[in-house]
Amino acid sequence: MGLPHTVETSANVKRKRVSEDSPGRTHQSQLQQRRIKLLDSRKQLPIWQRQKDIRDALRDNDVLILSGETGSGKSTQVPQFFLDQPWCGFPGKIAVTQPRRVAAISLARRVAEEMGTPLGSSSPASKVGYSVRFDESTSPSTRIKFLTEGMLLQEMLRDASLSQYKCVIVDEVHERSVNIDLILGFLKQLQTRRKDLKVVVMSATADADSLQRFFAAQLLENTRHDSKSVPNDSQTDGEAEVDADDAPWHGFDDEDQQSSSNIATCHVEGRQYPVITRYLDSPTEDTIEASLHRIFQIHCKEPTPGDLLVFMTGQEAIQSLQKLVEEYALGLTTDYPKMLVLPLFAALPQAAQQLIFQPAPRNTRKVILTTNIAETSVTVPGVRFVVDTGKAKVKQFRNRIGLDSLLVKQISRSSADQRKGRAGREAAGQCYRLYTEEAYKSLDKDSTPEVLRCDLSQAVLTMKARGVGDVLRFPLLTPPPKEAMEKALLQLCELGALDEHGNISPIGRKIARLPLTPALGRVIIEAATPETDCLVEVIDIVACLSVEHIFLAIDTEEGREKASVARRQLLRRQGDHLTYLAAVQAYAAEQSDRRRWADDHMISHRAMQSVMDVRQQLTAQCRQAKLFTTQEAHPATDEATQERIVKCFLRGFSSNVARACPDGSYKTFAGNQTVAIHPSSVLFGRKVEAIIYNQFVYTNKAYARDVSVVQLRWLEEALDGMA
Ligand SMILES: Nc1ncnc2c1ncn2[C@@H]1O[C@H](COP(=O)(O)OP(=O)(O)OP(=O)(O)O)[C@@H](O)[C@H]1O
């Protein structure tokens, strides 16, 4: 007679336990097998031979400036070299900053694999994690954390001393974004009061001499310190108190070159695989046509596997080229491999960005069309060919209109070298430059630091929120013109982020905690006031402004007519902001098939998924900051609410207003510049009293994007409110 079901023999229990444990154990052993396999390739990297020098250099010094060719192994290996160092202690963490989230996430994934540990929050035992805007994936055991520069600056708001880190590695320092320059300044200050903090600065192409001078120069002892502004760990609601342990802030004196830190430099020679560079014989104007030609030439001539990475200027160029490549690929005979075209740009949702890392299916070549976001730190497995158009969209401050705008510009030689470096990472590669060799030689050596070409209001607010009293004396690697700093201070005063003494206000502190520009942050704060009370709606609109365009681009007259019928229910005569709101509300209300809803309305489903993501994150952040007065959404048809919503944008963007002229054009109030409504706007072709816009873009002429109608009296009211 058998045993009743309820009684379990010890053998049964044991068998059951083994089978329950085995998935975890199998996973563990898979991780270890992968680690051992990768160890062989790590040992081939040029940097592997130099690990003792690198360890010794940082053991004996506070700062290490490390240069080495692209692909030599800096980003993946250097953090691992330090983990077992006595100065790093346990559980001392290492932060590694990256300019972009795609690099932060892919590096974290790779280093986790190399260490044989699960990634991020997937297991409490994971030793490698990442943190990017709207996505943090770490565990209690995280030792190495890859994070975007913006996220490190956010962490400094919660913990000015970065006390959880023993070492901060600033990677790709040659990019010289404002955030990198701010981080270098803060770290330099921090090392005066945290003697145990190590700093590593890395790049393939950085100017090591100027970095060395920067870290060697003494900080001034007597700079005014805005004591009220120093945040501390216990600060939760924006009303900061002085952290007693915080030594006064020190300014930076260019004249004084005495060393305050011990600094080591190290250069790693060599790269793993060669990359052949090819140029055009004569220049080309049409980069889309030239890229198309080159892509098919490579595809038809070169064997697979061998994926292609093509550097373009921006989302629109990428989408046009994608369409063309896909159309032409249909005409290829079956003698050729298939093509899988994948776009990559900053506004793409993370899941779509990560598709580029998946291996191409059999007999298929991946063709990745990217902006400069894949220029540094990224290894895309399978890529053997790089096509470089030599151009990028860059933010440039336009003095006449007092605004940042996006311009297409030639890249620098150092960017071109980084792009080339994306080939030849797993095997020998080729880089096709769609410009002549003479043009390459005439490029600027390095990109102009962002502090010299951008609106500095965010940078100044970042400093103020982290306790810098006199921002003009903050240690910046390249000091911007004094007027640019003053202009930023003025703008922040207008937004109410600084008080009349230049100290950060409670509003400024709230704005600094939001992952948005000061102007957009101000819009959110305005929407949260009890009188305005439209935060729910404004979050929806801000989410749309933070992702790729939600309306699919249409380039034919017929298509435009079709779109206006399909989107009729959503279009709002008041402009794009309320149209975006209508779209988000309708999409959110759709419960059965959102993809179909998006197709029916000629809206990008992918963009709407991102909107929903950002919306959720921003809502959570606003809730955390106690900004909600009510939780209720107002009906979008309520006219009073609609007016209040547009007025919120006016509070943040009062300088982005243009009035109609008799000849039908619009002229900006600031700078009296002619601006046209962008064809993508619902207001395109309409004439209204005045407009407000969120973006100023310059292609063949100056365009306002994301536009709404405003009444001039609202502007007067807004200006009165600011006075
Ligand atoms: N995700 C990955 N998949 C496959 N190989 C990878 C991956 N990440 C890194 N590698 C390998 O490790 C090498 C070193 O990469 P790493 O990013 O550390 O170099 P780097 O010196 O920091 O380069 P860069 O200056 O271009 O950022 C690559 O050339 C590649 O061979």
Query: How do the strands line up in the largest sheet?
Result: 4-3-5-2-6-7-1-10
Q: Based on the structure, what is the oligomeric state of the protein chains?
A: single chain
Helix segment tally: 23
Q: What portion of residues belong to β-strands?
A: 15-25%
Instruction: Name the CATH homologous superfamily of the largest domain.
Output: P-loop containing nucleotide triphosphate hydrolases
Q: Provide the domain count.
A: 3
**pLDDT < 50 stretches:** 1-20, 220-259
Protein name: RNA helicase
GO molecular function: ATP binding; double-stranded RNA binding; hydrolase activity; RNA helicase activity
Domain Helicase ATP-binding: 55-224
Catalytic activity: ATP + H2O = ADP + phosphate + H(+)
Task: Walk me through this protein's architecture.
The model is unreliable at 1-20 and 220-259 (pLDDT under 50). The protein has an eight-stranded mixed β-sheet, with helices on both faces. A six-stranded parallel β-sheet has the order 11-18-15-12-14-13, sandwiched between helices. Strands 19-20-21-23-22 form a five-stranded mixed barrel. Helix 3 crosses helix 4 (101-115), helix 5 (149-158) packs across helix 6 (178-193) and helix 16 (518-527) runs antiparallel to helix 22 (639-652). The radius of gyration is 27 Å and the shape is globular. By secondary structure, the protein is of the alpha/beta class. A hairpin with a 5-residue loop joins strand 20 (666-668) and strand 21. The chain is 39% helix and 17% strand. The chain contains 23 helices and 23 strands. The N and C termini lie far apart (93 Å). The protein has three domains: 2-219 and 251-268, Rossmann fold, CATH 3.40.50; 275-448, Rossmann fold; 514-722, no CATH class. Adenosine-5'-triphosphate binds next to helix 3 and helix 4.
